[in-house]
Every structure is written in C-alpha cells, then in structure tokens.
Amino acid sequence: MENEKKIQGICFANKGQAMSHVMYADDIILFFKATPEACNHVNQVLQLYSRLAGQKIDKDKSILIFNPNTPRQFKRFMASGLQVSVVNQLGMYLGTKIDSFQNKTDVYKEIVDKFNGKLARWKSDFYLEQQGKNSDIVQQDILKVHPYL
Description:
two-stranded antiparallel sheet; 3 helices; disordered C terminus; ABC transporter G family member 39-like
C-alpha cells in the first residue's frame, strides 16, 4: 500500500525520509497522513497483518494521535473508521515518554535519573556484599589467632 502511495508516511525532519511504521516485538506504531482513504487502507493492512501473523489486534489498547490543529470532527471520523480511541498524548512506551512535542531534556533526564538510581543500588549492594565478605575474612583471621573467641 505504501509503494502504491495509498498510505503516505510522515516526515519528521526537513529533507528526511518518510516513516510509516515502527515494529517492536508485538507492538506496531503506524505513522500516516490522515485521510479517509488512508483509514480504509490502514484497516486493510491491519487485517492482513493480523491474519498473516496470527495475532489479534486489541482495539482497546490501540490509539490515534493527531496534530493539535486537526479538527475534532475529523478526529472522531478517523477514530470511528479505525475503531480506536483518540488521545492527545502518547504517554509512556517501554518506560519512556515518547511524545514528540515534549521537552527532550526532561525525557532524557528522567532516563539518566532512573539509570543513576539503579547504579547507586548496584554499588550499594556490591559494597555491602564486599563488606560482608571482609567481615567474614576478619572473623576467620581472628579465629586463627584466638581460637577461643
């Protein structure tokens, strides 16, 4: 459908390559120019994918997000055609906020903070583990010197 220009991907940068989809494990994120024709073609693609992959698409977990300037009536029309709900923000995916209009510094700061928290816990666990081993060694050395302790 994409090669036949029935579904047009979205360019996220000037002179950038149009992107129509991202697949990760059993998740698919589709990017397309919202037209009534595209809605029908996307439905066809999803039905074909579902049949070939043997996976059922969960419409309750499927969402649409539009450019903020898209008329509300058109959003409802597209959501009805695809039988999914419309949201204003994508929210979290795999533990990371993925809204394109969000401040990237905040997103990456959150990731770095999570990583630093885990790193601190690992260091703490390793330190305590090492201290435990050291105290065992000290006790063994003391017992060698003073067997009656």
